[in-house]
MOSC domain-containing protein
Amino acid sequence: MRGAVVAVSCSGVYSFTKPNRESITLLAGLGVEGDVHSGVTVKHRSRVAQDPTQPNLRQVHLMHEELFEEVGAAGFRVGPGELGENITARGIDLLALPVGTLLRIGDDAVVEVTGLRNPCVQIDAFQAGLLKQVVGRDADGKLVRKAGVMSVVKVGGRVRPGDAIKAELPDGPHRPLDRV
């Protein structure tokens, strides 16, 4: 499975959207250099409130650009970084990857997929009604989260728009993604 980086984003302050950058640097075991969510332990406010010693399984947030087209068909306008992701990708089905998939990005960086982003009500504060577009139910009534995947940095490196992304699936049996 292959794709490409469309945009990279980071913010040093807690904000819902993250500005696009020319490049970001991934730091092994930490996340995106200069990003508010970088660190060994959890940085997302709700997770910190529960237990600030939890390991940070949400160091790097990746989202598929195809989601923007999907929500666009429902009348919403969303661009890279606006839903808080660090890496916007195209051409790779991030949501179908199993836990433990390695994503080789650009020349050096490697992240390991840990799970799905659990979309929150801040999405509706960004655009009213958007949350229902990124969280839904399948034909069996099972909850479907579409707001990207979370990962941890295994090997650091610089990531830029245009960089290739190559997925390496873990040895089986594969575990499907769940929220982290």
